[in-house]
Design brief:
By secondary structure, the chain is mainly alpha-helical. Helix content is 74%, strand content 0%.
């Protein structure tokens, strides 16, 4: 029967979609206790009036910033985020005092602060969070009047941040599992999942989960290395374990692609390796015996397991496999910093967008007849963060979440007296934050908004009648972002997805070159880069699906192409396994033809041209790769909208 009911557009369903994350009870308890604790102490000491209350408000702001900063990951990474959020947030409190009043001086100051924040946000995730806190507390300080001097405000803010940082440290000491070891152990669990899924419709998802686990593992034990000598040695050994797992990962991917069922003992061995690495235990059981017969992928899986088993089970072998950290010259670091900031075109473009929006918001703060106009600045700063996902999605979700949060805050201000009972709803809202931020931006705003409203109302009493005005301020800020930070920049609607597509094609070309022309070490490095690029491509696709047409429809049409690029990378991995099992190397000329086709596909994506329809001819282990590349080019021709036929060069 035909369903004639009304349905929301797919992009709108994606926009309002909220995942059902598990409740992180330890974080819930920490947030609920730590965030309102400074305010509770201030109320106990000085009551609901005077300087003590102001001190409690600023200390609670600091504890909020420090408590929200860390996310899952190594302790060193969490503390870097806490430090960046606290120090730059405190700097924002100082700068915000210069934005009081009117005239061009506050406008110029906001433009400079916005440009600096945009540049430093390109350095790292910790600096990106710190840049956001710089803007947030600059905005709050510009409109928050308290009897405390500026130095006292910053001092109490940093004291609250130190309290929040101490709670993070204490919680980390009670964690049952080392997150670094858990991230490496997860790789072997995902290998076991993929081997179990061979021949089923779960194989694709299992392979993507394995790629994601590898990315996270390398990010934690290599890209975020500790300065502690003992800890650095342990992380170096974990990095060596990850590197030793490369043949096993390749064999598992080849088995899934070829639907070659594996021995159940291999799945159990992968689980045993995961347990040994995660819990720092000896590997249980015996090392699986070598396999000389059977399909090449099955033999490769057993070989990979035996190799990792040897590294994990033997401390001396593990020490030899350790990846030592290479110290980089300061000039190279300075060059990298320049490349990430002023030398990066995307970073420069974001400087212009953020500065424009924040400057307009500052002008609106001065000219529009709105109460507490600093909320406009606050909204623009939070919404216009490129590494937090789609600007359109955040603007809409922020507006919707704030609407509900304002209603909750209004009810609380109406029925709650100005007394210590305000701590109870603040604790409940704070406790919901770690759960809500795993859902979506709107859900997070639902609980963050009443918390901030209650906190700021203690510093500058306004009552429930001002809550509606805060909603208006939020909608003005979202409107500024949508108009001046989104609609005026149509190239940003599709640029991240297009760049990710081209990056995936270039990484695939490099993988093919390494697989058939270079050493196993270079091949594995190129394979990791290829699958990492595909993971980034999927992330960008998901962000674009929540935007209105034609952006979402165009993004959805890319999905078959993305899947085909994944299949092509899997085919190259399968060919590598086959060659290691004795299959002859393909003809170099045929490899060159396949690589040229992949490079031309990248050029087609860059220049918005239709690929030609010439079929690629290849033999031996290269034949499946050529077929997958042909399929990718056909999908670009047939299913991708908005393409125009370009003119090929004379040599085509």
């Amino acid at each position: 029967m035909v369903d004639r009911g009304l349905h929301a557009p797919a992009w709108l369903e994606e926009l309002v979609r909220t995942s059902r994350p598990p409740v992180p009870w330890r974080d819930v308890a920490r947030f609920a206790l730590v965030i309102p604790a400074p305010l509770a102490l201030a109320i106990a000491v000085g009551g609901m009036a005077g300087s003590a209350l102001g001190a409690g408000v600023f200390a609670t702001m600091g504890s909020l910033a420090a408590t929200l900063a860390p996310q899952s990951g190594p302790l060193r990474g969490r503390m870097r985020r806490v430090a960046a959020a606290s120090l730059l947030g405190g700097t924002g409190l100082v700068i915000g005092h210069g934005l009081s009043g009117g005239g061009w001086q506050p406008v110029l100051l906001m433009a400079v602060v916005s440009a600096v924040a945009a540049l430093i946000s390109s350095i790292s995730g910790a600096f990106s969070l710190g840049a956001l806190q710089l803007l947030v507390y600059t905005a709050i300080s510009s409109g928050l009047e308290t009897p405390l001097p500026a130095a006292a405000e910053v001092g109490f803010f940093l004291a609250g941040a130190a309290w929040g940082a101490l709670a993070v440290l204490l919680q980390s000491r009670t964690e049952s599992l080392d997150p670094d070891r858990a991230s490496v152990g997860a790789v072997f669990d995902r290998v076991a999942d993929l081997l179990e899924a061979v021949g089923t419709d779960r194989a694709e998802d299992a392979r993507r989960a394995l790629a994601q686990a590898l990315n996270e593992g390398y990010d934690r034990v290599i890209h975020t290395r500790s300065r502690s000598a003992g800890r650095s040695r342990e992380l170096a050994e974990l990095a060596g374990v990850l590197n030793s797992a490369a043949p096993l990962v390749e064999a598992a991917v080849a088995s899934a692609r070829g639907e070659v069922a594996v021995d159940s003992r291999d799945i159990g061995a992968a689980r045993a390796l995961a347990t040994a690495v995660t819990q720092r235990r000896p590997v249980l059981g015996e090392r699986p015996p070598a396999v000389e017969d059977g399909p090449a992928p099955r033999r490769a899986v057993r070989h990979g397991l035996r190799l990792v088993w040897h590294v994990v089970g033997d401390p001396e072998e593990r020490a030899r496999a350790a990846v030592q950290r290479a110290e980089r010259d300061w000039r190279l670091r300075l060059h990298d910093l320049q490349d990430k900031t002023v030398g990066n075109a995307d970073s420069r473009a974001f400087v212009v967008r953020l500065t424009l929006c924040m400057t307009i918001a500052e002008v609106a703060r001065q000219l529009l007849p709105i109460e507490r106009p600093y909320w406009v600045l606050l909204t623009v700063a939070i919404v216009l963060k490129p590494d937090y996902g789609s600007v359109f999605t955040r603007a809409v979700q922020r507006g919707a979440g704030t609407l509900l949060g304002v209603l909750i805050g209004s009810l609380l201000l109406t029925f709650l007296g100005r007394d210590a009972w305000v701590l109870l709803p603040m604790a409940l809202a704070a406790g919901a934050l770690p759960w809500a931020r795993s859902g979506n931006f709107g859900l997070f705003s639902v609980f963050q908004t009443p918390l901030i409203i209650l906190l700021l109302d203690l510093a500058t009493p306004s009552g429930a009648e001002l809550v509606g005005a805060r909603l208006v301020d939020t909608l003005i800020g979202c409107g500024i972002v949508l108009l001046f930070g989104y609609l005026l920049w149509p190239q940003t609607w599709r640029a991240p997805l297009d760049d990710a597509l081209r990056g995936a094609a270039l990484a695939l070309d490099r993988f093919i070159d390494a697989a058939f022309n270079e050493s196993p070490v270079e091949t594995r490095r190129a394979r990791r880069a290829s699958y990492r690029a595909l993971t980034e491509l999927q992330t960008q696709l998901q962000r674009r699906l929540a935007e209105p047409p034609p952006i979402s429809t165009r993004a959805a049409a890319w999905w078959p192409v993305i899947v085909q690029l994944e299949r092509t990378s899997d085919a190259v991995t399968e060919a590598v396994i086959a060659m290691r099992s004795g299959e002859p190397q393909p003809d170099p000329g045929q490899v060159t033809v396949v690589r040229r086709a992949v490079r031309e596909l990248e050029e087609d994506l860059r220049d918005h041209r239709l690929p030609d329809d010439a079929e690629i001819h290849a033999e031996g282990v290269l034949a499946p790769v050529a077929r997958e590349v042909d399929a990718a080019r056909r999908l670009v021709r047939e299913t991708t909208p908005g393409r125009r036929v370009g003119v090929r060069g004379a040599d085509d």
